[in-house]
Design goal:
- This protein is of the alpha/beta class.
- It is about 35% helix and about 15% strand.
- It has 13 helices and 19 strands.
- The protein has an eight-stranded mixed beta sheet with strand order 3-2-1-4-5-6-18-19, sandwiched between helices.
- Strand 9, helix 7 and strand 10 form a beta-alpha-beta unit.
- The chain is globular, with a radius of gyration of 22 Å.
- The chain binds nicotinamide-adenine-dinucleotide.
- Nicotinamide-adenine-dinucleotide (NAD) binds next to helix 6 and helix 7.
């Protein structure tokens, strides 16, 4: 079986889907690995390093023909997608939800599509494959570092002959995987950290990292399914923003990480809250997206300074700004899933398996993922039988 790694071409994307360590692991399992020329350049991984690990370096058109499985970080680019042929598989963070046409096109092309970002995260055996968690950990760490870099003062308490610096006050909104990593990182830099999440079960996790947990009187517990938050009502949203504003006004740094699956990120920091912050304060919005983020007016990948001197950083692709670490972790996720899926030298799709049912989105010409099948006009299948 041949697995091919293509060079990512999305703007700003520096990660690569496999690293030499992962190549060696796949080779040991009898899987051949082809790597597109310069695929690892963005993560400082040379073609030679891949060759030494047992991969074959090839041009894009050669890979596309030879590969049984093409592995990617994001969606395959147009050129790769156009070259996919029936029976070939593509595996990456394909983000298929909310875009049924994407899965439909792959199904029509007879391609088996496997979307790592849909891995059922609560299954213990899926944890080594959980790319959302591995990349969120990196993003959370980097968000705290970015905030510290943009802040014109110290994070830690510093007592010197030239004066004493008080520690920075950092508030983290959203205490999931990324938020907890941001809290830990800000704490390690010496900041005084507080955090808030709508899921009350995060209180213990926040406190175990040495941060204070903020409870809002106006918003009740909002734990939803699968460890995620539920959508708040309009009334809850407004009270939350109002009550958070008084906390935000006292902070030097605010890092927002709140997400609700399948929805636009909740707005937590209003324009009025930004106005209440002191000049020199920094806000990093990890929820920044084209649809809007956690912070009013933030744009992904853009930094703006408000009239009152608050720097608002809309985080873009933070994991890609740490391409070596992010690629290494992502490659572990990819290789764990590949080794799970490959039986006797070929990809053995089995939709009776709950883990596979979570990640396989198209198979044998059908959109098979339950969350996509209906809208894509495919057939939701719960067993391995052909339709
Ligand atoms: P996420 O990225 O969907 O959301 C980030 C955080 O934002 C969550 O903690 C959420 O509660 C919070 N949030 C949403 N709306 C909010 C609002 N209006 N105000 C404040 N906070 C808000 O979540 P995630 O980090 O990917 O994962 C969340 C949880 O999923 C984890 O903490 C964990 O409990 C669970 N999880 C479990 C496993 C596992 O079982 N192996 C793996 C990964 C995640």
């Amino acid at each position: 079986m041949k697995v091919a790694v293509v060079r990512e071409t999305a703007p700003g994307e520096r990660r690569v889907a496999l690293v030499p360590d992962a190549v060696a692991k796949l080779r040991a399992a009898g899987i051949e690995v082809l790597v597109e020329t310069a695929a690892g350049d963005g993560a400082w991984l040379s073609d030679d390093a891949f060759t030494e690990a047992g991969a074959t370096i090839a041009a894009r058109d050669e890979l596309a023909v030879a590969a049984d499985v093409i592995v990617t970080v994001g969606r395959p680019d147009e050129q790769v997608a156009a070259g996919l042929r029936p029976g070939q598989a593509v595996l990456g963070m394909l983000a298929p939800l909310g875009d049924p046409g994407f899965a439909r096109r792959l199904a029509e092309a007879g391609v088996t599509a496997i979307s790592l970002d849909l891995i059922p995260r609560t299954l213990p055996r899926a944890q080594p494959m959980d790319a959302l968690t591995s990349q969120a950990n990196i993003a959370g760490y980097k968000a705290a570092v970015v905030a510290a870099g943009a802040f014109g003062r110290f994070f830690p308490l510093l007592i010197t002959a030239a004066g004493t610096a008080r520690p920075a006050k950092v508030l983290v909104l959203g205490a999931g995987v990324a938020g907890l990593q941001a809290i830990g990182t800000a704490r390690r830099l010496g900041a005084v950290v507080s955090a808030y999440d709508v899921r009350p079960e995060t209180k213990g996790e926040v406190e175990s990292l040495g941060a204070a947990f903020i409870e809002l009187a106006s918003v009740g517990p909002a734990s939803g399914e699968g460890g995620y938050a539920r959508v708040l009502t309009e009334e809850e949203r407004q009270s939350q923003q109002d009550e958070l504003a008084s906390h935000i006004a006292r902070q030097d740094v605010v890092i927002t990480t709140a997400q609700v699956p399948g929805r636009r990120p909740p707005l937590l920091v209003s324009a009025d809250a930004l106005k209440s912050m002191a000049p020199g304060s920094v806000v990093v919005d990890m929820g920044a997206s084209a649809l809007g983020g956690n912070v009013e007016g933030s744009q992904p990948g853009e930094t703006v300074v408000t009239e009152n001197g608050v720097t608002v950083i809309g985080a873009g692709n933070l994991p890609s700004t740490m391409p070596a670490a992010a690629s290494a972790m992502y490659a572990r996720n990819v290789s764990a899933l590949l080794l799970y899926l490959v039986k006797e030298g070929s990809l053995a799709v089995d939709l009776s398996d709950d883990l596979q049912r979570g990640v396989v989105i198209t198979y044998e010409g059908q959109v098979v993922h339950p969350a996509l099948a209906e809208s894509a006009g495919g057939t939701a299948r719960v067993d391995g039988a052909a339709h």
